[in-house]
Amino acid sequence: MTTQPLRYLAAADVIACLPPLDDQIRLAERAMIGLATGAELPPKIGIHPRPADSFVHAMPAHLRGPAADGSADLVGMKWIAGFPTNAAGGLPSLHGLVVVNDPRTGVPLAIMDGGPITASRTAAVSGVAIRRWSPPVTGRATRAAIIGAGVQGRAHVPVLAHLLPGVDLAIHDRQHERAEALAAAAAGTPGIGSAGAIEDARHATAEADVVITCVSFGPVRQVMGDGWFAPGALVVAVDYATSIAAEVAMDAALFLTDDRAQLFANRDAGLFDGYPDPDATLGEAILAGTSRGDTGRVLVTHLGTGIADLVFAEAILRAAEAAAAGTLLAR
Q1: What is the largest CA-CA distance in the chain?
Q2: What stretches of 258-303 show up as alpha helix (H) in DSSP?
Q3: Which of 155, 173, 218, 256 can bridge 179 by disulfide, Cβ–Cβ 3.0-4.6 Å?
């Protein structure tokens, strides 16, 4: 029995095969519901190489499909390395690959650059939260803030433009020129009403209806307390507890996460000191129809899951096969 060649998708191939943004948000919602309905996803398996604050994580995942023979299942893994010290040498801090396996035989079907997948699936999960739990705004444009103008900051701009048309966007980064560059790019994005770079992070978040924190991980954590945010804001943290203090989670009217087990594992490791148990996972809240309520702040902390990577990778692979994209590698 012969097996088909292995398909390799470089970053440009992955980007070309990404589905439209609305479909990306639907894929993210599918992944979150999968987590709530029995997907197999162990907490990230990690090692910690010598450069300061470095990590390498294995993120295996299995999502059952409707076919009894397993043909509609998803099986795969993301392998991601984070080396913050790379920046000094002009290298990206994150490097990742996603492997997709045949669910019935285990044969690897594709290997693809994980960078664009990580950026797009993270922003799409934020989109799920924004679509469902943003505060209602009347008589003015919605105000949003992005804290961190790196890869994730850039990836969130089109999501905000798509879901909050006309949004007034404030962007802060410790390197002000990065915030200025992203604000200039955002201002030209259809759906963004206005965009500006703000030198003071607290000023950027103070009146925002939606705040997204996506700064680089580091030893200083939990710098933004309750006083940083409007009482009814939706706060979406994609940088673990680097930005958001435990009191924000404690005092939130609704505190959600993508994966409870992963949050607990990181809390045990000291990354979420003082954080309470979440009220629900995103998938549980979606299935239950949980609303944001009339008052109070909503905090969504999503840590990134291999299920989301795998759901995106499978959709990308199908598009790549249809378009004959990528490079076929002999076995």
Answers
A1: 66
A2: 260-268, 282-288
A3: 173
pLDDT 10s digits, 153-202: 999 999 999 999 999 999 999 999 999 999 999 999 999 999 999 999 99
Yes or no: say if 220 and 195 are a contact pair by the CB < 8 Å rule: no
Q: Taking the mean position of all CA atoms in its chain, how far away is CA 249?
A: 19
Every domain of the chain and the residues it spans: 6-117+307-329, 133-304
In contact, 2 and 226? CB cutoff 8 Å: no
CATH number of 6-117+307-329: 3.30.1780.10
Do the beta carbons of residue 170 and residue 198 sit within 8 Å?
A: yes
Q: Which of 179, 190, 175, 178 is nearest to 145 (CA)?
A: 179
Burial (0-12, 13-18, 19+ Cβ within 10 Å), 293: exposed
**Cα distance between residue 83 and residue 320, in whole Å:** 30
CA distance 93 to 214: 14
Which residue type does 323 have?
A: A
CATH 3.40.50.880 fits 133-304, yes or no: no
